[in-house]
Design goal:
- The structure holds 2 protein chains of 2 kinds.
- Helix content of chain A is 46%, strand content 19%.
- Chain A is α+β, with helices and mostly antiparallel strands.
- Chain A folds into 5 domains: 1-51 and 504-635, no CATH class; 59-244, no CATH class; 247-478, no CATH class; 636-749 and 963-1093, no CATH class; 764-961, no CATH class.
- In chain A, helix 2 (15-54) runs antiparallel to helix 16 (498-505) and helix 17 (507-527) runs parallel beside helix 29.
- Residues 306-310, 628-639, 701-705 and 1084-1088 of chain A have low confidence and may be disordered.
- Chain B has a single domain (33-59, 76-225), classed as 3-Layer(aba) Sandwich (Rossmann fold), CATH 3.40.50.300.
- Chain B is built from 7 helices and 10 strands.
- Chain B is globular, with a radius of gyration of 18 Å.
- Classes of the chains: A alpha+beta, B alpha/beta.
- Chain A binds chain B through residues 1-3, 5-6, 9-10, 12-14, 530-531, 533-544, 628-633, 635, 638, and chain B through 12-14, 48-49, 52, 55, 57-58, 77-78, 81-86, 88, 90, 92, 94, 96, 98-101, 104-105, 108-113, 117-118, 158, 162.
- Chain A: It is a multi-pass membrane protein.
Chain lengths: 1093, 229
């Protein structure tokens, strides 16, 4: 006989009862360990997703809206053999199959060469020829195609010139290719290749880089280099810096024979300020600006007839600049041809009419007046066609009628002599103005100079290269080096904390399971009270007795945790099955894989053991305190006066506080503050529970009135105040959680047409693969494009970034930025948070302002701010702009759930300042009459099909995003309901304990003539009162706490679901009460009790 | 003097309120080694309360409980537990054997609080007592397999296994039929005489009370020598 054998014998003797306790432990272990496994698995899945999408890539050299030489990759390898570098030309496109029946928009088209095998560990990519492509499995499934099938791929036109730069034709926004599928790629074959931090798999098409270059009309260009290296990012940055050549900045050097000059020009038409500044510093530098003007006009003081005016103007000409002091800012030089045409002489006033090209190719008519200073001969120096920058639609034109200048050309205005001039001198400038004036008039967001010229004798190629390598760094051209693998892993590891999330979601079930464990254990103790008493009388010290039961509790907990660990795996797989099913359509993949680490199991087991042993210990301690003299009759403990006053004070404070906040919100405040309502509800819950305790306490000391049997119910309630309160608290809390969660479910279809809703009152949200370069609201353009339906569009520019919506589980640092005209959103959407500095100002209107510290105001969905970014309003996000400078976006406000989830919004003005190279719009919000919505939708779908127009009703988009939030809420509701059902089991345990204690009392009552039915009603009513009180208190408090949700247009305060859950709770509780009451009143049982007595 | 109770006052409820009910009121008792005392009294007179005080299971409101001259009311809970284990033996109306243990294990149970493993001598002593009360054949059976008399005899052996100086019995024959009650009475007297154990029993049973050397009646919270009337 040892202590150990005593414990083991006790465990097995009370096996059934102990297994019940173990079940409680198993439930808490399942939930707790399950949550930890879910967290691990999500992290593991996201990490795996990062490895699958990156292959061997560790770093990425990338640039937006421009291209560098492919050779940069091999040069990097030469500079450091530890680097494996692979150039990729990454573009977007649309893929179509089944004769146009099936299409996939926003497809990632990657031009790769044999080097890609280094990243993919697959030689397949070396063998892609001409029109052969390899596509990802998800794309094949979407388009229902297989190996050997043909596919029409429309790729967004890439251009060395920014698409919205002045005088660049917008006719061709995409290039088509009919390709044959050579291979369907699995994820192991880099089918999920993506450079964005997201678990969503993109649709991928791979083809040979040479072919993609050819399609884009250029050669040897790439916009990404995938690097595989163990070097640090800054070391790779240095290597990129060393590999950077003027050609990577789009610069080309040529000799201008006619003028005896060397010219450095740019493929981008206008040189970026930093490049221009660098070249200007070189000895002998003469910057040149050549601009296309609509008219050169000789103005006359007395305009007698319109004819006269017409005969004195020249249409569509190039005007160039002269540096130095040859010309004052108001002076102009004309060439002989122009002077003759205008019949002008020095001293005359010459007016230039030109377009200033605003955002979305908005044309602004401008004029500038000059005094004619001189007329220059048509010599090679002055009639110099090389001054005209290379503009594809103009430079290649055989004659004027073939011009595609990206601006409207009135062909009727072009005269025979103009054609003759073009034939002889092409784009040779007809006029010259000072460089200063030209800069002032024609400097635009894309740059300043069109070229920089040097006298041949002063041009020093080595000095140019030296200046370039010293002054121009990759960041100045927007070339970034990013440690993508590390970022991917960090994003995965710091993503949504699913362990925490599920622990939170399962909070109630966890509490219920722990309480149940304690209650069941206590019940066991009470059935063994004689054993405790006898051990006490035999001289076992309190600690010894406690250690026996505690060790027995340890054995029980061990058994429970082992069962729980096994169940946690099923729990996790059930949760993942739900999540994978719910999210599959949205994230396009079954991303979640179960990963079980032994350490997690040990941790889960350890925590569960500690928690359950803690519960058992507390239960045991409290029991022992009550049993200090087991044979002594129990004396009623009177609450100390101090405690009594404290609890009363707290009750009045809670009820009063709740009422004040509620009345303030209803009667005074303009806005229903959800936080304050929740506080009011929470205080009410506490207050009502304390009030219930007070009522119970009051019943006790009352003198018995005329006693009726049913009054016994009322008198019995305070017999064990703590126990009665436990029941009420359990049900009040559970009901509170279930009702408040159910109320907060978002109904995003409700009032979708309301401007203050998450749709902003817009009908559709659309996104294109190719940018739309013009304004959809422009009447002229509408007529040109054949748009007949009446709608308005709000257009957004976009800088690609990571998806920061709830659909992305990774922790995101740089979400995509949208640029918008803030005026167009005024009065739309609602704001959940805003910085104090805004005051009453509408946040949209504040987007145009600039903070003194240089940061730029930005707005995002509050959910993105809080969960996606882990930030608050007032915080900043850091980006690198196109000039390589740090762009600090300050979050000034967070919208309520909206279609903007995943994006950061800034004003167009700020956007273009920082991303001048960005062209056109990719995102659109369409507004119009709701009745006309199908027609508007059809027209847009048809007209913009080739842009990869992907459109959906705004309400549906919201639902998609918030399906994640609603999924969490549903899980929370389900787990809460399960917790409540466990709670009713707890109630049953409490009831069983009470009945156990009252066996003899009930037997006597029956013996003296109480009918079994009466006793049943007595017992049943006692606990029904407690059950109903708890549910009622919880319900009332929850309705107050979530009143804004009930009143809100966006919430699906689904009363049916909540009512169903409450009915389940009540039904389950009633069943237990009725069952146990009936069981305890069975005749046989009672007779036994009396015999024992 | 083995045990002295001096001016013991004990009641239930909150003192100085209407709910307070006095039970023992200035009670005095002196017990010498080897005494065999019975305490009788009507229900509610405080017999069990008194036994709890003597057995260090409860503390008096006022007064002292001296064991061999030492005031045990000043002992800590831990000291009291040790004291009970080493000096006292208890027998209750219900045997209170632990159902999960065999007869023999139940008997050995009081040896565990000492924290040492049970010695051969202790086991032999337990076996001797078991043999003496005639339940050797049932030593490996669990209480559920024993008769009421066997259970109560086991309880007696369990009370004696630690060689206590004072044996306290609360209605030890209350749950037994006459034949078993008589047998248990004989057993208690024989064993206490043989082992030199002082015996105090609280009982309603006249037969048991009459067998004792001294017989007290608990009346109005005080002990009255019932032989003196």
């Amino acid at each position: 006989m040892t202590k150990f054998s005593y414990i083991i014998k006790s465990f097995f003797h009370y096996l059934k009862a102990n297994l019940l306790v173990a079940l409680g432990v198993a439930i808490s272990t399942t939930v707790l360990t399950g949550s930890l496994i879910i967290g691990d698995s999500v992290r593991y899945s996201l990490e795996q997703a990062a490895f699958y999408r990156l292959g061997e890539t560790t770093h990425l050299v990338t640039v937006r809206e421009r291209y560098f030489r492919q050779e940069m990759a091999s040069e990097m390898e030469k500079l450091n053999p530890e680097i494996k570098a692979t150039p990729v030309l990454l573009l977007e496109g649309v893929a179509v199959s089944g004769g146009g029946e099936r299409r996939a928009n926003r497809v990632q088209v990657a031009g790769v060469d044999k080097n890609f095998s280094k990243i993919a560990n697959d030689t397949l990519f070396s063998h892609l020829k001409n029109n052969e492509i390899a596509i990802s499995r998800n794309l094949a499934e979407r388009l229902q195609v297989g190996q050997g099938d043909n596919l029409l791929v429309r790729v967004k036109k890439a251009s060395l010139i920014p698409l919205n730069a002045p005088f660049v034709s917008d006719d061709e926004s995409s290039i088509s290719l009919r390709a044959t599928i050579k291979k369907i790629l699995t994820r192991e074959e880099l089918g999920r290749f993506s450079l964005k931090n997201s678990q969503s798999a993109p649709y991928n098409i791979f083809l040979s880089m040479e072919r993609l270059n050819e399609m884009m009309d250029f050669s040897g260009k790439a916009n990404n280099i995938l690097v595989s290296s163990s070097l640090e990012t800054n070391e790779i940055q240095k290597i990129v810096d060393q590999s950077l050549m003027p050609a990577d900045a789009g610069l080309a050097v040529k000799r201008i024979e006619a003028t005896g000059e060397m010219e450095i020009s740019t493929h981008r038409v206008f040189m970026e300020p930093k490049v221009a500044q660098t070249l200007k510093q070189l000895p002998g530098a003469n910057p040149v600006i050549t601009y296309f003007v609509n008219e050169i006009e000789k103005t006359q003081e007395n305009k007698s007839t319109a004819n006269l005016l017409q005969s004195h103007s020249i249409p569509y000409s190039f005007v160039s600049s002269l540096s130095g002091k040859q010309l004052a800012d108001n002076e102009i030089i004309l060439n002989q041809w122009a002077a003759d045409d205008l019949k002008t002489t020095p001293g005359d006033t010459i007016r230039l009419k030109y377009f200033e090209i605003g955002p979305l190719r908005k044309l602004i008519n401008k004029k500038a007046k000059f005094v004619l200073k001189a007329i220059v001969p048509m010599s090679s120096q002055w009639a110099d066609p090389t001054r005209m920058p290379y503009l594809p639609g103009l430079s290649n034109a055989g004659h004027c009628r073939e011009w595609e200048a990206g601006v409207p050309i009135n062909m009727d205005a072009i005269r025979e002599k103009d054609e003759a001039y073009w034939n002889q001198w092409k784009g040779a400038p007809k006029a010259y103005i000072s460089l200063t004036e030209a800069s002032k008039l024609w400097k635009n967001r894309f740059g300043i100079y069109t070229a920089v010229r040097f006298p041949v004798e002063q041009y020093d190629a080595s000095k140019f290269r030296e200046a370039f390598s010293q002054e121009i760094h990759p960041a100045d051209l927007g070339i970034l080096v990013e440690p993508v693998r590390e970022q991917g892993i960090q994003a995965a590891r710091n993503g949504t904390d699913f362990s925490g999330l599920f622990l939170g979601l399962s909070f109630f079930i966890l509490v219920a399971a722990i309480v149940l464990t304690a209650l069941l254990f206590r019940l066991n103790l009470e059935t063994r009270s004689a054993e405790v008493g006898i051990l006490d009388s035999l001289g076992f010290k309190t600690k010894q007795v406690r250690s026996f039961f505690l060790l027995e509790g340890l054995v029980i907990s061990l058994a429970g945790t082992l069962i729980g660990l096994a169940l946690s795996v099923f729990y996790t797989s059930a949760v993942f099955r739900i999540l994978n099913t719910l999210w599959f359509e949205i994230v396009r993949t079954n991303i979640l894989l179960i990963r079980i680490y032994p350490a997690t199991l040990v941790a889960g087991m350890g925590i569960s053991l500690v928690v359950s042993l803690g519960a058992i210990f507390i239960s045991l301690r409290r029991y022992q305190k009550q049993q200090t003299a087991p044979l002594q009759k129990r004396t009623k403990r009177l609450l100390k006066k101090q405690g009594y006053f404290l609890l009363n004070g707290l009750m009045y404070f809670s009820l009063g506080g709740s009422l004040i906040i509620f009345l303030f919100q209803i009667m005074v405040s303009n806005e229903l503050n959800t936080g304050l309502f929740f506080l009011s509800g929470g205080l009410l819950l506490l207050g009502l529970l304390l009030a219930f305790r007070k009522v119970l306490a009051r019943i006790g000391p009352q003198k018995p009135r005329q006693l009726k049997w049913h009054k016994l119910v009322w008198l019995n309630l305070p017999r064990n105040t703590g126990r009665s309160l436990t029941v009420v608290i359990l049900f009040a809390l559970g009901t509170f959680i279930v009702v408040s969660t159910g109320s907060n479910k978002l109904d995003l279809f409700a009032n979708a047409e309301d401007k203050s809703s998450g749709t902003g009152g817009f009908l559709y949200f659309a996104e294109t693969t190719m940018p739309v370069l013009y304004n959809l609201n422009d009447e002229g353009k509408r007529a040109e494009e054949g748009i007949s339906e009446n709608f308005t569009a709000v257009q957004f520019r976009k800088v690609e970034g990571d998806d920061a919506s709830c659909l992305n589980l990774n922790r995101i640092k740089q979400p995509a930025i949208l640029g918008v005209d803030p005026e167009t959103l005024s009065g739309r959407f609602s704001f959940a948070t805003r910085i104090a500095e805004l005051g009453d100002r509408e946040p949209w209107r504040a987007l145009d302002t600039k903070f003194d510290d240089g940061s730029v105001p930005a707005i995002a969905d509050q959910t993105v701010i809080q969960w996606g970014l882990g930030k608050n309003v007032g915080d900043e996000l850091l980006y690198q702009n196109e000039q390589g400078d740090t762009l600090r976006l300050k979050l000034i406000a967070g919208t309520t759930p909206s279609v903007f989830q995943g994006y950061i919004i800034i004003s167009n003005e700020h956007f273009l300042q920082h991303f001048p190279g960005n062209s056109g719009s990719h995102i659109f919000l369409i507004d119009g009459e709701a009745e006309k919505s199908p027609q508007i939708g059809d027209e847009l779908q048809t007209l913009f099909r080739d842009y990869g127009w992907e459109m959906e009703p705004t309400a549906r988009r919201l639902v998609e995003f918030y399906s994640v939030t609603n999924t969490y809420l549903s899980i929370f509701l389900a787990l809460g309901a399960l917790g409540m059902i466990l709670g009713t089991v707890g109630l049953a345990v409490i009831l069983a304990r009470t009945i156990l204690e009252r066996r003899r009392e009930l037997a006597i009552m029956q013996a003296i003539g109480f009918k079994t039915r009466q006793l049943f009603i007595l017992l049943f009513s006692e606990y029904l009162v407690l059950l109903l009180s708890g549910v009622l208190i919880g319900c009332v408090a929850a309705v107050i706490a979530t009143l804004p949700a009930f009143l809100s247009t966006h919430s699906d305060a689904s009363p049916e679901t909540v009512a169903l859950v409450i009915a389940l709770i009540l039904g389950n509780g009633i069943l237990w009460i009725a069952g146990l009451s009936w069981f305890s009143l069975r005749k046989k049982t009672l007779v036994n009790e009396l015999q024992e007595e | 003097m083995l045990l002295q109770l001096q001016n013991i006052v004990k009641g239930y409820g909150e003192p100085n309120t209407h709910s307070y009910r006095p039970v023992l009121n200035g009670l005095n008792l002196e017990v010498s080694e080897g005494d065999k005392i019975s305490i009788v009294g009507p229900s509610g007179s405080g017999k069990t309360t008194l036994l709890n005080l003597m057995g260090a299971m409860d503390t008096p409101g006022e007064g002292k409980v001296l064991f061999k001259g030492k005031d045990i009311t000043s002992y800590s809970k831990q000291e009291l537990a040790g004291f009970r284990n080493q000096h006292l033996g208890f027998i209750f109306q219900m045997h209170h054997l632990l159902p999960q243990l065999t007869l023999f294990e139940n008997v050995l149970l009081p040896l565990l609080p000492q924290g040492k493993s049970i010695s051969r001598e202790q086991k032999e002593w337990a076996e001797y007592l078991i043999e003496k009360v005639g339940i050797t054949g049932q030593r490996n059976q669990k209480p559920s397999q024993l008769s009421g008399g066997e259970c109560q005899r086991t309880a007696v052996v369990r009370a004696l296994v630690n060689k206590p100086e004072l044996l306290l019995a609360d209605e030890p024959t209350g749950a037994l039929d006459e034949e078993n009650a008589n047998a248990l009475t004989d057993l208690l007297l024989t064993l206490s005489a043989e082992e030199g154990v002082t015996l105090i029993t609280v009982t309603h049973a006249t037969a048991l009370a009459d067998c004792m050397d001294k017989k007290f009646q608990l009346k109005n919270g005080k002990l009255v020598d019932s032989l003196k009337g």
